Each structure stands twice: as C-alpha cells, then as structure tokens.
Amino acid sequence: MIKETAQKLLNDAAKKLGLPENFSVVFSALPQLCDFQSNSVFAIAKQTQKNPLLLAEDVVNATAPSKWFSFSVAKPAFINISLTQEGLAELAAEVEKAGKAQPKQDKHIFIDYGGPNIGKAMHIGHMRSFNIGEAFKRLYRKLGYKVTSDIFLGDWGMPLGLIMALLEREGRLQDCMSGKERVSIELMNYAYPKASKLKEEDEAFKQRAMDLTLAFQQKKQPYYDFWKVLRKVSVDEIKKVCKGINVDFDLWNGESDASDYIQTVIDIFKEKGLAYISEGALVVDVAEEGEQIPIPKKSADEVQRYENPMPPLMLQKSNGGDLYATSDIATIYYRNKLYHPDIIHYFTDARQSQRFTQIFRACKKAGISPKEQQLWHTGFGTLNGKDGKALKTRNGGNVALVDLLNMLYEKAEQKLQQNGTEYDDELKRKIGNAALKFADLSNTVEKDYIFDLDRFTSFEGKTGPYIQYTACRIKSILAKAGEFENSFNFYSQEQKAVVIALAKLEASFPAAFVDKSMSGICSALYDVAKNFSTFYNQEHILSEPNLSKKSVKLTLAKLTLDAIARACDVLAIELPEKM
Ligand code: ARG
Asked: What is the spatial distance between Cα 130 and Cα 113, in angstroms, rounded to a whole number?
C-alpha cells in the first residue's frame, strides 16, 4: 500500500539516524501543498529532546530516493509528501485493486436492527434503524465478515391481543379465525388504533386484551393459530416496505422465538444466585464496582442506601409476566446456541442505551454471553422537525414510516418534473430513498438531525440525489465513449484530486468499522462526486482530440463510477440509469 510505503521510507530513515521508528502518514490536510503528510516529528522530537525542524530536515535528507514520492519539510516541522506521476498511477491502481478485492475475516457478526412491532404501524424510529443497520450489514460483508441479520420483530406483546379483543367485541373474531372473513393489513390497521384507544377508556376491554395476549403466549388454541395468521399478514406488509427501501434480513425472527427460552434463562440467573425478589419482581443487579454511590446515613442505625446510576434489571414482573429485557436475554441465549456469533451488534434509538447496558452486563454475569463475545449497541438520535423537536404528526403522534416515504417520493417527483426528466415510480422511489438514506447516514449516528425535505432531495450539494446524478452522468459518458484502453497516466491537478478522493473513499470503509458510523463514507463519497464534477467541467472528455489523454479521462471516469457504485452499495442507495 502506497501510504504504508511512504511510512516505511520515513521509518527506515529514522532507523538510519538512530531515532524511534514512530512515523505515521496521513492524507494531507492541505491538498494544494502535498498529497500526504506526517505529523510525527513533534512527538519524536519531544521524546528525543531534539529541535523539531532540524530533525524533520535530517529525516527527509535520509530518506531513500523513491519513484513514487518526494519529501519536503514545512514549518514548523511537518513532513510533506507529494506523489510523482508514477506514484499517482500506483495509487489509482490500488483503488482499482481494492474494488475487486474479496477480503475474508474469520469473525461472525450477528446484527439486530429494524425491530418493528407486529400490529402497529412502523414509524420513523424504525426507519433510522433500518437505514443504519442495513448499511452496517453491507459494510461488514464488504470487509469480509460473515454476517447474519435478524429483524427482531416485536411480535409477542399486547398489540395482537388488543386486535383480537376488538374483533371479538365487533363480533368478527370467530369469522376471522375460521377464515370466513379475510384478515388483511387494512383490517389490522383499522383494529389496532381503535383498540388501543378503547383500552384507555374501558377497563374490562383492557383486561380481555390482556387475557387474549396471555392465551396466545401460552400457545392456547385457537388463539395461537390466529396469532400466526395476524403475524403473517403483518410480516408480509413489513417485507413489502423493506423491499421498497432496499432492506433485507436473513432471519425474520422476533420476541416470540425467544419465548421458549425465557424460563431457561431465568433459571440460570436463579441457580447462579444472581436474581432476587425486590418489591415482588425478580431482579438482577448490574451496577459495576464504584457505580453504587452510598447515600450518607442520617443516623448510625439507618440501613445503608445507595444512589445507583445503573438500576437493577427486571427479569420478571410481580404478576409473573415476562419482560422485554428478558426476551432480549433469552434471544442472546438461543442465538449463541444456534449461531455462535463473535459479535452481536444492535441498532436502536439512543433512549434504549441504558437498557442494552443492563442486558449486556446481565448476560456476561450469568455466562449467557461468553467472555470473549462482544456485544455492541449503537444508539441513534431522533429525526426532528424544523422546530428542533421530534418529528410528529399534527395530532402529536409518531410519523408513520410509509407517510414519510411518500413525502420523499412526491418531492422527488416534483424535482424530476422541474427538470423535465422522464420518470416512472421506480425512479421516484430510488431518488426518494437515496435522499433519506444519505441524509440519515451522513450525520454522526448518535446526533439528532432535522428533517429538511427540500435539502435532502436537492440534486445539488451534499445529498443522495447529487451522488446518483453524478453516477448517471458518468454512465452516459461511458456509454457514448465505447471501448477504450485503460491508462493511468494522469497529468492534471483536477485528475489528481479525483484519484486522491477515490483513495480516501476506499480508506473510509475500514474507518467506518472503527468509528461505528457511516458519516465518513458519506463525506468521502461526496468529495469524490464533487471532485469529479470539477474535473469534468474543466476538461471535456468525449470531445478530447488527443487519444491518449482521452483514455486517461475515460479511465478516471470508470474508476469513479465503480467506486461510487461500491459505496452506494454499502449505503443501500440504488443507482438509476438516468435521471
Ligand atoms: N421493537 C422495539 C421497538 O419498537 C425495537 C427492538 C429493538 N431490538 C431489540 N433487540 N430489542 O422499540
């Protein structure tokens, strides 16, 4: 790798001079001055008590001559590294090679995202989890990991009991269960909101819904079979929405799949003496050493009480009912039994962070998660309206995922109409999705961000549609150009800027793994598109009369298109043919 080669040349020079071999090389912060730089002199000078500027000069003078680089010193003591034409060609070759590489890692990553709830409409919180989780799944695969993804449906709770209770109240339950009345998603969408309102007003109705919930949870017939029908109708609908946003899962499991293991995990906690009854509920302490802050006693005979920043995890309610956290623990238990993942990575709203800390600690304490297994949770911020508050419908409810998508698709349609482009539903969908995904993934993951429909869907600036548009332009150039010889003899500043942007995009993939954020990939991708546009506007490609220069430009166009396609594949952004 070219960066590592520059680093090695500096460290070889350091060795010759008897200095510590601690040089590292990064992309240049000032591309107008150089292509790479090393900022290591400062620390080494301090360590060896030498004058930084003199030390930098000594090192540069001692570097072996290289066909790829020239080294120079910049005050106060930076080492600037510029690529020769041959060096730049080598960098481009590296980018091309990286595009074809198929790395292999021996770790298995299990990823858990989406998490919609059966019976309830999906909302924008699920959208963020879908977008971020899907991108991580694709990144992990690209980096060579074995990946298993699971949507972890909320399919075992009260919403389905509520729907059953409402149908019963309306005298339709028997017909629905016997198949006389068809159970459609429309029926479920009608029944759930009505039932959830009724639950607040009518205690007997609420009790009936709870009884029916318990009935299917205990697999009592005919309720359990009817639960399967409702689950299937709902899952089919979720699959349709997921397909529309280019999201897919290996496993469509849910809380229900953990139900058979709930008692097993509760027994593990009990046997290991980790669970105890507190106020009627079964709980596990998960606070770590030092986290239990003693509250000063007012008198000597008072019992010691603690201010506990990490509350105990509740395994079972006082009425014996299971809890959401227990489902997650039981899920870790059976995932480990069946799949043995090295890492499990969860994606939910940041407000669930404490919950996951509790779950992870409880699993480690009980040995349900082996010591060497890593449990990760990425908590994301909320999607806010322009007022800076969580985006809500007019009557204060969560914005439904499908409504949000329709807003984007309509806006994409308006833009296409303005541009006079021919379009169909597929094109609207691809552009609308790209707008949302790019905006969603560009932000530092834990931050809230503001929903700005106009900006997200703009064909200019740092947006998904701009990236798609750039790719379409390149596709059209390459289609018109026909066959050409590959040539890496880049010769202009604009071409160089594109090659460097491509190399940075390549480097952003492993960096995203470390940062657990896609924002670096989005920025690097935007830089590629922006630098390509500058190059394209300055240097005509198809009308270039000099054939060897034309080959260089077409090679660069092809490299750029391939790189954009790879990055978009990770972000789950689809590239249209034309727009
Ligand atoms: N169903 C949950 C919700 O809508 C999200 C599930 C998150 N994943 C998990 N393993 N708990 O809030």
From this structure: 6
